[in-house]
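QA checklist item 7 of 12: single-chain prediction sanity check.
[x] sequence parsed
[x] length recorded as 141
[x] structure emitted
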Amino acid sequence: MLKVRKAGIDVGIVVSDIAAQAHFYGHTLGLPRAGEIPLPDGRLHLYSCGQSLLKLYVRKDAKHSARAPFGDAAGIAYLTLDIENLDAAMASVLRDGATVITPISEFDAGVTLPEPAGRVRARYAMIADPEGNLVELLERS
């Protein structure tokens, strides 16, 4: 069994247009830039998100590929950012031209799970980055 040492999970996304992606994650979403690491086959651009890192990986040979509609393909489908004030966040990302996939909606599963999940009730919205990766903005109630 693994012994996890960090209160978070780092996520890597291979990107083809680092300028557009850096603007989206750094400016539109406001994630602090944590640095850049040169690698033999590309470059890793790091952004902080709580105790986690978002790693935008620019590879020399990366090609943008079409995504299946949400839920139609197995695998990682979206990132979730647990935020405060969803209304203000959405107004801000819309001003910056974010693509909305799901407008602000509400969800209540009617159950309470052990932490870190807790009460499964929230307001949320789904947006897409410039290359179509989905980001859920979640405001727990």
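[x] summary fact logged: The longest helix spans residues 18-28.
[ ] second reviewer sign-off
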